Every structure is written in C-alpha cells, then in structure tokens.
Amino acid sequence: MAVGVLALQGSFNEHIAALRRIGVKGVEIRKAEQLENVTSLIIPGGESTTMAKLAELHNLFPALREFVKMGKPVWGTCAGLIFLANKATGQKEGGQELVGGLDCTVHRNFFGSQIQSFEAELPVPDLAATEGGPPSFRAVFIRAPAILEVGPDVEVLASISVQSSKTVDPSSQEESAESEGKVIVAVKQGNLLATAFHPELTIDSRWHSYFMKMSSANNEIVSIASSSSSNLFENQESYLYNKQPKTDLPIYH
C-alpha cells in the first residue's frame, strides 16, 4: 500500500518526489476516506493556519486523529510538526485546531519570518546510525517552528544551537549577556516522527527512508526503503547534485 501525503497546501509534491527516489509510491490525501488506503502518512510543511482551515473545511481532523490513535506512522514536517503537537504557542489570534498525539510544546514561528529562512548542518547520530551517510544533515528551515518542551516518551533526534537575545533584569536594570542554548528540531515518539525543517527540499533522502522503517504494517515498503537507502544516497551525490538546483539560503551559525 502507498504512503499518503496530506495535499491541502504546502510542499506535498516535493515529498512525493522524495518518496519516489527511494522506490515508494506517495499518494495525495485530501479526503478522510482516502486515509483508509494508505499505511502511513506525511503531513508536509506549508502555512499551518491555512492548512488547519482547509482540514477543518474538509472535516479531516477526526480522521487524522483516528489515524494517529491507530498507531499508523505519521511524519510531520514544519507545519506538520505543529499539527502533531499537543500544544502550540505563538499562534495567530484565535489559534488553530491541532491533530495532537505528540507529547511536546511547539513554538509556531520560533526562527522568525520568511526572510529569516536559513540552512544549517545538524548532527544526526541516530539517522546516520540507521541510514548511513554523513553524521550531519543539511537542514532547510523556512519560517520554521521549534520544539520547546518534550514529554518523557519523546526521543530527541536533532537539536540546534540558538543565541538568546539580550534581556533586562528588572531587579538590576542591567542587560544580561547573550547566551547560547539549544532547541529541539526533530523528535520521534512511537509511531510519530516530526521535523521542524524540510527534508523534502534536499537531495538527501535518509529521513524518508528512516520514516519508511517505522512502518511495520507493510513489509514490502520497509524492504524497498531498507535495500535502497545506502545505494541511493551514494548515487544521489553524483547525479542529483548535478541535476537539481541548490537552495540559496544563508548558513545558520
């Protein structure tokens, strides 16, 4: 059975293309009944408020919540991460409906506006151990969220260092120095995977192969992803880098 990609808005075509590169069929999902024909689901990046309004219009939220509760693998990228979170902050007035299931708190626009999009090299030891390839992943962040808190059952897969802005201590009226901390940008909890960045916009298909391995309901899909992952990554270096234009975003330090 195919992998569903929620196709209300956002980068669903890019996810389908990335799945195709590892030999997996992705199908567009726009109606609740279409979820019955897929073993797993990807909720892509996009404009989370718009996606939520469209999902509500098509009465998709009950079916999406049931899909998660059934234990079927679901991966949310960027806006999809916001969808899966149990709690979201920094939302527009009135908020938005969430699918939930992922025990975390997400800040909707943690890294700023569209013009503050960037790329960063993320250490990804678990991904590299599972899928091979380099120990880091070049992640594309576009008006991205970040995970502020996680529950005890959530496994952190990637974090990024951030500079906190200067603040004033009310008791002393003195500015504190900038300090460096980390925020979480990739997690896994049971059947749920979530990334604050956009793996579908890169040529590195390891996150898609990683997600396929989470699907125990379809041995054929798991087998294809497992056997293809290492060879495809090596071949992509020589072919896809020459065939696809690279993104031109600032590097995040």
Quickly list its features.
single chain; 253 residues; three-stranded mixed beta sheet; 7 helices; 29% strand
What does this structure look like?
The strands form four sheets. The protein has a seven-stranded mixed beta sheet with strand order 2-1-3-4-14-13-10. A three-stranded mixed beta sheet has the order 5-6-9. It is globular, with a radius of gyration of 18 Å. By secondary structure, it is α/β, with parallel strands linked by helices. The chain has helices spanning 12-21, 48-57, 61-69, 79-84, 125-131, 206-213, 219-243, and strands spanning 2-6, 26-29, 38-43, 74-77, 85-89, 102-107, 118-123, 136-141, 146-150, 155-163, 168-169, 174-175, 180-189, 192-195. The chain is 30% helix and 29% strand. It has a single domain (2-243), classed as Rossmann fold (3-Layer(aba) Sandwich), CATH 3.40.50.
H/E topology pattern: EHEEHHEHEEEHEEEEEEEHH
How is the CATH topology named?
Rossmann fold
Radius of gyration, in angstroms, nearest whole number: 18 Å
The largest sheet is: 7 strands, mixed
Helical element count? 7
End-to-end span in angstroms?
A: 41 Å
Mean pLDDT: 82
CATH architectural grouping: 3-Layer(aba) Sandwich
Outline the low-pLDDT stretches.
166-179, 217-223, 229-253
Secondary structure: helix percent:
25-40%
Count of domains: 1
Strand proportion, as a percent range, falls in: 25-35%
User: Strand sequence of the main sheet, in spatial order?
Assistant: 2-1-3-4-14-13-10
* Structure classification: alpha/beta
Q: Quick one: CATH superfamily?
A: Class I glutamine amidotransferase (GATase) domain
Q: Count every beta strand, where a strand is a DSSP E run of 2 or more residues.
A: 14
CATH class: Alpha Beta
Catalytic activity: L-glutamine + H2O = L-glutamate + NH4(+)
Pfam families: SNO
Protein name: glutaminase
Family: Belongs to the glutaminase PdxT/SNO family.
